[in-house]
Amino acid sequence: MTETTGSKTRTRRNGKGLTIERIFTTPGVHPYDQVTWESRDVVQTNWKTGDTIFEQRGVEFPDFWSANASTIVTTKYFRGAVGTDARETGLKQLVDRVVLTYVKAGKEHGYFATDEDAEIFEHELTYALVHQIFSFNSPVWFNVGTQSPQQVSACFILSVDDSMDSILNWYKEEGFIFKGGSGAGLNLSRIRSSKELLSSGGTASGPVSFMRGADASAGTIKSGGATRRAAKMVVLDVDHPDIEEFIDTKAREEDKIRALRDAGFDMDLGGNDIVSVQYQNANNSVRVSDEFMRAVEEEAEFGLTSRKDGSVVTTVDAKHLFTKMAQAAWECADPGIQYDGTINDWHTNPETGRITASNPCSEYMSLDNSSCNLASLNLLKFLREDDTFDVETYQKVAELVITAMDISICFADFPTDPIGETTRNYRQLGIGYANLGALLMATGHGYDSEGGRALAASLTSLLTGAAYKRSAELAGVVGPYNGYARNADAHKRVMRKHQAANDEIRTLHTMDSSVHKAATKAWDAVVKTGEKNGYRNAQASVLAPTGTIGFMMDCDTTGIEPDFSLVKFKKLVGGGSMQIVNQTIPRALNRLGYADETIEAIVEFIAENGHVIDAPGLKPEHYEVFDCAMGARAIRPMGHVRMMAAVQPFLSGAISKTVNLPESATVEDIAEVYLQGWKLGLKALAVYRDNCKVGQPLSDGKADKEKKADEVEAPVEKVVEYRPVRKRLPKRRASQTTSFAVGGAEGYLTAGTYESGDLGELFLKFGKQGSTLAGVMDAFSIAVSIGLQYGVPLETFVEKFTNLRFEPAGMTDDPDVRMAQSIMDYVFRRLALDYLDFETRSFMGIHTAEERARQLETGSYAPLESSSDDEDYEDELENYSQSAATTPAKKAEKKEEIADQSGAGAADARKADAEIHSSAELLEQFQGKVADAPICMTCGTKMRPAGSCYVCEGCGSTSGCS
């Protein structure tokens, strides 16, 4: 049997199978041939110790991959011993190892209508991976196509019963899962409480005591060989008699950490003595019922029940218990909360069993002894140059990826037989996305805004709708999942719930309207096709942290998270590093209608300050577009909760996300977040209050104490007082007068210098002679002049008076200072340009028009003959310089090239300080306070949040399970 599609004749093998449509590729052209490849050396060091922790030279990657992406993929995902012929040496080998395994399994299991469809599937999957359009989760890259067990799942849920055999088996199963590079979660509520009796008459130990053994086991195992520490979740139902002990577990350990720290022990997050503290390897969550939450609202009593017969062991005040949860989370960020009623109301398989637990990051929620493999789409890849969203391609890629994910279950290995059996019977998948925060910013949407939530909801609805549409089509080709028949009514009910939720979305703009229209059409197809065929997959979508794979795709933001900060730390391909203002910022400003001159001024301001507050020319109503997870305008806690609530109805699973709260947040604030999470229909929530955990190095504080002690005991010495001496200008001195106009108001600046050329005085004429304004300007000029003559550095005045904002403000007639926020802002920028050296004012972000033009052309503000201590950095910029052209088109092309190599953009790029090694440390520099984040155990870099986990920008290590 044959069918003709276009000009190609396809030969069917069995009359069934999918017809795969081309999305990106061209017939007769392999995707690798459309890419320019280059050789790179990957050398990774621990910056603290100076030790080389990895080295592989001559690896091959596309030229548009950033240094960070190629480093992380080489170190994490290439298989074979380094230095041997078995070692993979380039991205082609890695992608072929994975993709060809998928294609082979797809053919063997009847997924493709023809061999030609299998080839198109191979090419499209290859193209999408090479061009960073999506990525599978880490275990796929670790294991698929190797001699190792081909574990493809990142997320596992276990079960444990009230017996010693089951408890010991739990320890063993977790160990195997951690060894394979994944994480696991389970609910301990079946284990009888410490308030109940054993059959022998003795008292039971209770689940909290057994948590100690599992925690110690997890702390000794590095996942995936040397990938990351074990990730685990422990859940306890709110009606368990030991729930108060469970809630207090980690908070009491945090008290212990503080006591040991004050006694001189090394209790830093990577310290030698932290291992003595218990319960630190798991995320803890309380599973609350709707009944309990209603009791909290009504301030009623709530019964804690026996695990053996369901009788009430004791009653508690529900609100008091709820406040106790919030208090513990305020102290140490644990426990989180899971909403049992919502979780099981959206459950597609209730006839098989309830959902009792989740994976470590809380995005995967399904049956006990099950697993889920993840994949994430890079949303920014679907944003066209004209800032329209490519809805059709987005849907097609989602259908392609979900097909590949389902194929993986056909050949996958699993750590235990029960997990393998459940996963093959229910085929749970977890498609998701990354770069939502970057997409919202680039398109001018505030993260905490109605428009931002409408777009996010529409995108999530279309993603899950496209996934279930393909799942229903697959059911017609290779059959529904084995457990579908007994759960058909429930599964179809949940599909209708998703469809009804989609109908409730209220779009505000053309972009979200077009996405929502496609989602509505997709859900209609889901219900109709599913009614006929059933579904191939019990679950289809989650929103995972996308830590390591986010770096692989060069994403600015992870999962559903907003941008971490406006200025990022980026490595260069040729070595060295830069701090870079995200390219999404000028793109957003352009979309919001700002002129090029204003965009340049705003970007320079951000590069200097790390935030947009009082940026020249930026309207306050646009500040929200640039709000981030951290920094001067951090998104409010309920902004995070509302975004989660907007997308939750369109996910099979849940969302890995932590709601960040400031250090000043109260216990009541956390309780309100937990309460609103329930009311808004979330499935799970975790919170983190800044500086609630101990994790800072001891050396500085200890040194300060020793210093104070020494100062107290020191003998009294003679005090010598030093006073500044005024250095007057000579009677005859050189001076220059500059006329200027700021916002249409004109004035004159006269500056006098010493014989050395250093500035010694200034006079400002502004306003009519004899007016109050003229008098104030004279007095100000005298005060600054005397300060200069007494030795106050000019750069100090520049730092204090630039960016002062008052009228008149706006455009100037000075080509070097195009925008000024006030007269003072202009005057001291002009003085900096005239009298400060390049390095000093460049650090302040003050450049001439010529220097800014040079930056667009070469990637550097510095003159071509300037030198730098960082040879690798200068070599990189030298390469940019040599290849730069002079035409505007070539300049734009070169700027784009720099943006590609940085991974985020080169809107305003400058050399990073030698002490900075991550975006978290860069944010510390801008904020003037220490970021509350762990140190990577592999490379010593300070990590940053990714969902409810942490990720290292230096080597890609994560504390989570995706």
UniProtKB/TrEMBL annotation:
Biased composition annotated in UniProt, kind: Low complexity: 879-889
SUPFAM superfamilies: PFL-like glycyl radical enzymes
Boundaries of every TSCPD domain copy: 730-834
Domain Ribonucleotide reductase large subunit C-terminal: 153-688
Molecular function as annotated in GO: cobalamin binding; cobalt ion binding; nucleotide binding; ribonucleoside-diphosphate reductase activity, thioredoxin disulfide as acceptor
Assigned protein family: Belongs to the ribonucleoside diphosphate reductase class-2 family.
Protein name: Vitamin B12-dependent ribonucleotide reductase
Organism of this sequence: Serinicoccus hydrothermalis
